[in-house]
Give the backbone structure.
Amino acid sequence: MINPTERELYLEEIIIKQKLQLDKYHSLENLLSQLLEKIREPKTVTCKYKQMTGHSRKRRSGNPCPPNCQISAHRQWGDGCQNAHWIQTKRRKAK
Ligand SMILES: [Zn+2]
């Protein structure tokens, strides 16, 4: 078996360092695109009902909350969610 010369070892070291540098740039690129995604205006927001109660509104009557309680970013509540929350708070206070 041939032992690698010092020069070969040195070159190998440089290549490894360059690779690590490239990996760093790649993760930076990912990080930047993730940040950009967050900065961009969101199309949907989580319904206030879910934000306050921690769960989606139960589908019993009326319009159920959309999947994952995602509603248009221009609104705060899903259809009927504010009303449902108001009624539930009222009931809880009555007890
Ligand atoms: Zn909702």
Observations:
- The first strand starts at residue 44 and ends at 46.
- Residues 1-40 form one domain.
- The two ends are 85 Å apart (CA to CA).
